[in-house]
What does this fold into?
Amino acid sequence: MANLVNYEEASKEVRTVYDDIKHTRGVPDVNNFWKALAVHPPTLKRTWESLKEVMGPGTLDPLTKEMLYLAVSVTNGCGYCIASHGAAARKAGMTQEMWGEVLAIIGMANETNKLAFALQVPIDPMFQGP
Amino acid sequence: MANLVNYEEASKEVRTVYDDIKHTRGVPDVNNFWKALAVHPPTLKRTWESLKEVMGPGTLDPLTKEMLYLAVSVTNGCGYCIASHGAAARKAGMTQEMWGEVLAIIGMANETNKLAFALQVPIDPMFQGP
Amino acid sequence: MANLVNYEEASKEVRTVYDDIKHTRGVPDVNNFWKALAVHPPTLKRTWESLKEVMGPGTLDPLTKEMLYLAVSVTNGCGYCIASHGAAARKAGMTQEMWGEVLAIIGMANETNKLAFALQVPIDPMFQGP
Amino acid sequence: MANLVNYEEASKEVRTVYDDIKHTRGVPDVNNFWKALAVHPPTLKRTWESLKEVMGPGTLDPLTKEMLYLAVSVTNGCGYCIASHGAAARKAGMTQEMWGEVLAIIGMANETNKLAFALQVPIDPMFQGP
Amino acid sequence: MANLVNYEEASKEVRTVYDDIKHTRGVPDVNNFWKALAVHPPTLKRTWESLKEVMGPGTLDPLTKEMLYLAVSVTNGCGYCIASHGAAARKAGMTQEMWGEVLAIIGMANETNKLAFALQVPIDPMFQGP
Amino acid sequence: MANLVNYEEASKEVRTVYDDIKHTRGVPDVNNFWKALAVHPPTLKRTWESLKEVMGPGTLDPLTKEMLYLAVSVTNGCGYCIASHGAAARKAGMTQEMWGEVLAIIGMANETNKLAFALQVPIDPMFQGP
It folds into this structure.
């Protein structure tokens, strides 16, 4: 089980990251992922700054971004990530119906990905190139 | 390398599926995935009907669906699927900028999924339950 | 690309393994997997001896064993392994119809595995225990 | 944790699927996988119908089918699926000895799949073609 | 949940392996992995002998070997393996700081592996060949 | 196939990253991974800066770092990454003998990871906790 570094026992370096997470997300405390990652402050800092950039405002809306994150997390079978990004997706507006469709797509994609492996399908010329 | 069943040599059962794919998608020929899957007509038929249902009209728009499909395919490393669903996503409106963001999310999700495994992070109570 | 060690240039240690593979399988030459693995003779020897034991006579018949090997190889997306164990399965009696069913099962299992991850389904009491 | 939809609270659409599962398998209740999948009735229905077709009578016997399902589930690390399909395989006749051989094959295949990746082994001409 | 075969109830064949593990590692009892694997004595014996050879004295030092084992285990998301090889790595000298760096590398490698898949990057000529 | 952005056609933003890669590594040109990633300049910049930090001077020596990177890349089956980090590892001092041992560990770890999944081995108390 992970060692979780709580705010009170955290170094100044770690607290600065925690503060930025709390401020950016408007939450009273950081979730366990960050408390576990604090075992290595440079990785905590880099991961948070990368995530903030990647999940921040852009061309794709926040809901689409969270659903993409969820699709990867399910494919990798990461229970923690499914729980945390599932919650984030629901918070960003994912309805039960949308979740059902995301679920269906994840299932089908994993099925057809493996069928394409099995058959070693050659790529059609029209799918190649820029 | 896969055996590809072309329309001319296909059985009536296979042709019926090919016809439905061509009609549904408005394409002159089916792509290699289906020609390879025709090695087992019941799997061809079932996979196509499932895919048609899953990727058909619903709550999520076609572009979001294709990007989700792409995110799974990249995570699984399926070259054929990346090529075909990448083309489908671009056709559905995925711009270069959107693709860049999808790319960034896939990368980050794969990174944090493995960090969460490494640290065996316990799920926060707020992420559990319905 | 792998360095392939051919019989002529192989050390005595490597030749002994090659000879056993050729004798056990009744083939005139070993396939590329072994020629590539010869980069590290102890791994070549151990892998061959393990494989010979695992795939040798037992409770399961050779065809079932090869189909199981194929199902894992497809799930991992190993092109070389799909090609070599696909050939071995066909040689052991896998018909086109059987291959179609193996294909369908691999597809469905990969789909439902990911659905079970997505939903974080709790294990039913009846499935637990010895 | 998944929301599980019990029969009493299920919609008519969901009950119809549950009834078919119970009837087809001769069980008094459906297992948790289906109760969790009921979150999205179209996916529940499609997944069950596909599974019924794929795992139903065919060229391969039920035991072989379940062992193949198990091999994929282990490779993907799906705990729920290992528990449920392990139980199904034992019910279909998988002895302790057979399970030991399945185990050994899964282990070896995962090992050699990764060795083949590591060495990027080129496919032998004899393994290619139809 | 696995059936665990304790020393007292183990067959002579299994005890011989257990004794060798205890002797080689200088531990009073074998860990659960071996007790679970004893379900199939030939796989227990072969796996132990292979592991003993692979993790035994060689060109790489024991710490490096354990960190490599850990990197694979995290990538595969094997909770048991992360726990046992994490403990072994710490015993072999992995400090908190080293673990932080291993963590960071595993994260980055998983990210860039998937980015390379996404972009289907062609291999540079300088990276090919012997 | 990836679009590769060469230096001549690159934007100023991309050139700045390319220049830093070339300078840091002492190479005349960047490899294809970066040229493909330039499709999305913010991801190019962030990925390079992260990689530079993670693979830069630290507690672990460069060779160990590259072997860890390689172990993850092989497990994920990323051909490009195996080629590029294999070259980097050899440049950092990985001998043929070391590579053989890395290979053997990757193989064994992938095998035992899946055996631990198959048996759903409970974690020993001594492996838990801080």
User: Anything to note?
Assistant: Residues 75 and 109 of chain D are 9 Å apart (CA to CA).
